[in-house]
C-alpha cells in the first residue's frame, strides 16, 4: 500500500509501504483521484492518503510522480498526467489510468485459450522410470497440504467469529428443549405420517443460529400445509434465535482480503509460485461455488484435510509463463519449454499399449521431465510418462503447464493459446430442431436442415445392433445398441457382471440389450423387490400393518424397520430386502456412471461432426430453438397425454441440454455462429404454404392449406432456417391467429428433397 506523499515543488514522491505487484500496478497503471476538499489522494483501489498542502490542485495542471521504496530508495517507476475536473463532483480532480498494452494475439482475430489434457503415469512398460516420487516433490505435497489447512482453519475461525453466541448454548437448547419436545410429540401421535424428524442442521457437531432459523422455517412450512407441530415450539425457537444478531464482518473481511491472507500464509510456509497457484485457485473456487449454488451457512466451506478425508492426497504443480507464452513446437525439440521437456515417441511394441502410432495425429507414449530451480539453486527433477492422445496444434503458444494428481490418477494439462477460424456469417443459415422422439432405430435427439443443398439429416441415438460395414451406418449417430458377448470381453468385465446379476440365465454368446432396456430392467427389478417385501410384511404384521405401507418407498421401509425393531420376523424380511436393494442400487450407480461417460463422449463427437459437415457445405451460421427444455417442463402436468409423459424418460436418457452445450462449444472452435430462435408456431407453420396448422402430437401430419404430408421435426428444422434469415417470416410467426403470406425471397423447398 501507499503510506504518504511528499512534494518538492517539481515532483510528487509516492512512498510505498511494500513493493508488491498490487502496489506497483496501482501506481503505474491505476487512476489517481485527488480530492481537494478532503485533501486525500487515491491510487486505483488502494486506501487514500493525505495530500501535502503545497501541491497545486488546478484543472489542466500537470503533475509528475515518482515511486519511493519503503527504505527510501527511489524506484524506477515514474508517471505524469494532467489533472481533469469532475463535473459531477466539485473539488475532485483525477488522472486517468493508463491503458494496457495491446495484445499480441487479439480475440478479434480468433485467438483464444484451450486445454490439452493428457494421461500421465508414474511408471509404464517401455519407460525407464523410477516410479518413486522424489523427496523434493514429497516435501512440496506436504507443504501444499499444510497451506490448505492453514487457509481452511482461518476461514473456519472467521465463520465462528460471526456467531454472537457460544456453540454450547445452542447445543444445550437443542438437547434440552427441541429434541425432547419432538420426541414427546411423536409419541403422542402413535403410528402416523405426521411425525417429525430431528432437525439435521442442529444435530451436527457445531450447530449455529442459522440452523435454528432453518428449523423455524421447517415448522412454518408444516403449519402452512396444515400439518401438526409441537405446541409452542415455534415461538420458543424464534425467541431464542432472536436474542442473537450475527455479525458477518469477520467473514466478509476474510473473503475480501483473501489474496493478501493467502500470500502471507504462503510466505510463512516458504511455498513456491508453482505450489501456490493450484491451491489458491481451488480455494477460491470453493468460496465462489457457495454463491452460485446458494448453499446453507453450514455447508460448502473448504474443509481441513485429514489423512482419511476425501481427496486429501490430491496435489498439483502449476508452472505459469509470465509473458505471452512460448511456441508449442518447442516441446518437439530437446530444448522443450521452461520447466518441461518431452522425449521422442516410443515404439508401440515396447509399451504393451494398444492403439499407439508414430504418424502425426496418432496416440504416442513419451517420457516427460520436469526440471525446476530449487531453493538452493539446485535442480528439482521429476520424470514420468505421458500418453499424448492428440498432437499440439501448429502456431499455438503454451502459456502454462499443470501436473495434477486427482482421485488416484496423474494428469498433465497444457494451457494453449491458439487461433480458431473467425466466424463470417453466410446469407444461408442451417436449422437444428432439438427433441427426444422415440423411433424404430432409437431416440432422435436432433434434426438438422442444411439449406445450400436442401438436405435434412437426423441425429440419432441408435439402440439397434450396428451394421458390420461402416458404410451402412448413418452419419450423426451415437451407437448404443446391443453388442456381441464375445467381442473382446469376458465375465470379469464390469458391464457384464452387472448384466449377469440382472439376468443369470444369459448365455455367453447371447446379445446384450441396449442401455435403455438395461435401465428399465434395473428399475423393474428394484420395484419387484419392493412389492414382494410389502406383501411379506402384510402377512407378517397382520392388523398392525400401517395404512401407508402400500405407498411407501425406500425411506418408508427403513422407517418401518426402526418402528418394529423388536419384531424378529419383520427384521428378517427387511434385512433381506435392504441387502438386495443395496445391491441393485450399487449396480445402477455403476452402470449409469459408465453410460453417462459414454454418452457425453459421443455427443461431443457428433457435435464436431455437425460442425465439420456445415463447414464443408459453406454454412457458418446455425439457428437453434431456444428454451426448449423450459417450455416443455412448463407444459407437463397431470392432464397431459400419456405419450407426452412417457417421453420424459427419453428426454432424460438423451440429455439434449448437454448436447446443445457441446454443440455451442464446438461451433465456437470451428468458426460457426450459433443464434437462437424462439419457438413461436414454427412447428405448426407449413414450410410450403405458411399455413398455421393446429397443434398435434403426430410425427407426420397433413397440412390443411396445401394438403401435403409433413414430418413435424423436419418442418421445424426448415422453419428455423427460414425464420432465422427472414425477418418478415419471423414477424408473421408471432401472430398465431393469422395465416402468414408467401414470401417470394424464401427459396422453395421441394417435398422430394425432404
Quick overview:
It contains 17 helices and 25 strands. It has 754 residues and is α+β, with helices and mostly antiparallel strands. The longest helix is centred in the last third of the chain and has 49 residues.
Task: Describe this structure as you would to a colleague.
The protein is built from 17 helices and 25 strands. With 754 residues, the protein is an alpha+beta fold. The protein has five domains: 2-95, no CATH class; 110-133 and 315-419, no CATH class; 167-241; 430-480 and 600-753; 494-598. The chain is globular.
Find the count of extended strands (DSSP E, 2+ residues): 25
In total, how many domains does the architecture comprise? 5
Q: What is the helical fraction, as a range of percent? A: 25-40%
Percentage beta strand: 15-25%
Q: Determine the mean pLDDT.
A: 82
Q: Please mark out the parts with pLDDT under 50 across 5 or more consecutive residues, or reply none.
A: 484-492, 629-645, 736-754
Backbone structural class: alpha+beta
Biggest β-sheet: count, sense, barrel? 8 strands, antiparallel
Summed up, the helix count is: 17
Radius of gyration: 34 Å
Amino acid at each position: 500500500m501507499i503510506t504518504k506523499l511528499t512534494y518538492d515543488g517539481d515532483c510528487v514522491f509516492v512512498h510505498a509501504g511494500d513493493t508488491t505487484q498490487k502496489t506497483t500496478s496501482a501506481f503505474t497503471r491505476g487512476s489517481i483521484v485527488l480530492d481537494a476538499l478532503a485533501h486525500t489522494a487515491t491510487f486505483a483501489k488502494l486506501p487514500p492518503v493525505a495530500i501535502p498542502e503545497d501541491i497545486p490542485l488546478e484543472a489542466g495542471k500537470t503533475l509528475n510522480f515518482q515511486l519511493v521504496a519503503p527504505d527510501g530508495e527511489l524506484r524506477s517507476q515514474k508517471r505524469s498526467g494532467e489533472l481533469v475536473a469532475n463535473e459531477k463532483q466539485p473539488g475532485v480532480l483525477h488522472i486517468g489510468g493508463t491503458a494496457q498494452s495491446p495484445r499480441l494475439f487479439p480475440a478479434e482475430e480468433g485467438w483464444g485459450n484451450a486445454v490439452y489434457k493428457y494421461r500421465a503415469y508414474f511408471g509404464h512398460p517401455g519407460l525407464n522410470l523410477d516410479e518413486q516420487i522424489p523427496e523434493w516433490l514429497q516435501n512440496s505435497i506436504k507443504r501444499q497440504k499444510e497451506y490448505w489447512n492453514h487457509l481452511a482453519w482461518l476461514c473456519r475461525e472467521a465463520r465462528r467469529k460471526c456467531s454472537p453466541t457460544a456453540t454450547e448454548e445452542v447445543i444445550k437448547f437443542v438437547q434440552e428443549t427441541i429434541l425432547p419436545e419432538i420426541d414427546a410429540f411423536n409419541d403422542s401421535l402413535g403410528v402416523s405420517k405426521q411425525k417429525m424428524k430431528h432437525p439435521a442442521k442442529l444435530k451436527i457437531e457445531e450447530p449455529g443460529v442459522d440452523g435454528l432459523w432453518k428449523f423455524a422455517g421447517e415448522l412454518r412450512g408444516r403449519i402452512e400445509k396444515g400439518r401438526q407441530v409441537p405446541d409452542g415450539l415455534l415461538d420458543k425457537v424464534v425467541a431464542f434465535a432472536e436474542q442473537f444478531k450475527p455479525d458477518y464482518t469477520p467473514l466478509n473481511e476474510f473473503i475480501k482480503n483473501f489474496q493478501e491472507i493467502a500470500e502471507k500464509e504462503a510466505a510463512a510456509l516458504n511455498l513456491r509460485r508453482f505450489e501456490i497457484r493450484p491451491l489458491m485457485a481451488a480455494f477460491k473456487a470453493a468460496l465462489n461455488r457457495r454463491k452460485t449454488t446458494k448453499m446453507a451457512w453450514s455447508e460448502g466451506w473448504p474443509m481441513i484435510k485429514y489423512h482419511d478425508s476425501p481427496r486429501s492426497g490430491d496435489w498439483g504443480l502449476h508452472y505459469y509463463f509470465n509473458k505471452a507464452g512460448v511456441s508449442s513446437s518447442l516441446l518437439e525439440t530437446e530444448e522443450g519449454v521452461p520447466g518441461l521437456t518431452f522425449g521422442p515417441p516410443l515404439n508401440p511394441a515396447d509399451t504393451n499399449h494398444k492403439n499407439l502410432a508414430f504418424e502425426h495425429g496418432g496416440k504416442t507414449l513419451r517420457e516427460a521431465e520436469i526440471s525446476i530451480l530449487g531453493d538452493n539453486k539446485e535442480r528439482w527433477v521429476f520424470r514420468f510418462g505421458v500418453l499424448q492422445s492428440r498432437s499440439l496444434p501448429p502456431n499455438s503458444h503454451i502459456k502454462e503447464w499443470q501436473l495434477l494428481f486427482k482421485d488416484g490418477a496423474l494428469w498433465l494439462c497444457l494451457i494453449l493459446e491458439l487461433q480458431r477460424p473467425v466466424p463470417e456469417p453466410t446469407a444461408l443459415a442451417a436449422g437444428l430442431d432439438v427433441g427426444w422422439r422415440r423411433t424404430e432405430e432409437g431416440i432422435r435427439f436432433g434434426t438438422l436442415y442444411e439449406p445450400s443443398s436442401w438436405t435434412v439429416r437426423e441425429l440419432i441415438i441408435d439402440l439397434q445392433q450396428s451394421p458390420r460395414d461402416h458404410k451402412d451406418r448413418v452419419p450423426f449417430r451415437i451407437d448404443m445398441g446391443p453388442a456381441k458377448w464375445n467381442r473382446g470381453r469376458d465375465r470379469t468385465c464390469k458391464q457384464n457382471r452387472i448384466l449377469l446379476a440382472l439376468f443369470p440365465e444369459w448365455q455367453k454368446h447371447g446379445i446384450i440389450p441396449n442401455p435403455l432396456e438395461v435401465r428399465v430392467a434395473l428399475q423393474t427389478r428394484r420395484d419387484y423387490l419392493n412389492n414382494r417385501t410389502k406383501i411379506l410384511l402384510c402377512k407378517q404384521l397382520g392388523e398392525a400393518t400401517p395404512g401407508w405401507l402400500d405407498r411407501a418407498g425406500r425411506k418408508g421401509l427403513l422407517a418401518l424397520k426402526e418402528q418394529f425393531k423388536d419384531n424378529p420376523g419383520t427384521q428378517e424380511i427387511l434385512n433381506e430386502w435392504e441387502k438386495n436393494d443395496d445391491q441393485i442400487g450399487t449396480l445402477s450407480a455403476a452402470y449409469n456412471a459408465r453410460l453417462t461417460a459414454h454418452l457425453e463422449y459421443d455427443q461431443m463427437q457428433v457435435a464436431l461432426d455437425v460442425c465439420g459437415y456445415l463447414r464443408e457445405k459453406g454454412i457458418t451460421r446455425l439457428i437453434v430453438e431456444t428454451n426448449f427444455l423450459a417450455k416443455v417442463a412448463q407444459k407437463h402436468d397431470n392432464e397431459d397425454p400419456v405419450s407426452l409423459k412417457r417421453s420424459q424418460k427419453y428426454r432424460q436418457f438423451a440429455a439434449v441440454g448437454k448436447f446443445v452445450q457441446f454443440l455451442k462449444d464446438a461451433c465456437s472452435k470451428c468458426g460457426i455462429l450459433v443464434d437462437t430462435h424462439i419457438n413461436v408456431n414454427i412447428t405448426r407453420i407449413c414450410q410450403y404454404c405458411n399455413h398455421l396448422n393446429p397443434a398435434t402430437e403426430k410425427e407426420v401430419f397433413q397440412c390443411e392449406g396445401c394438403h401435403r404430408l409433413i414430418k413435424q421435426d423436419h418442418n421445424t428444422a426448415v422453419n428455423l432456417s427460414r425464420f432465422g434469415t427472414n425477418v418478415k417470416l419471423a414477424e408473421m410467426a408471432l401472430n398465431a391467429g393469422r395465416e402468414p403470406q408467401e414470401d417470394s425471397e424464401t427459396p422453395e423447398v421441394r417435398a422430394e428433397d425432404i
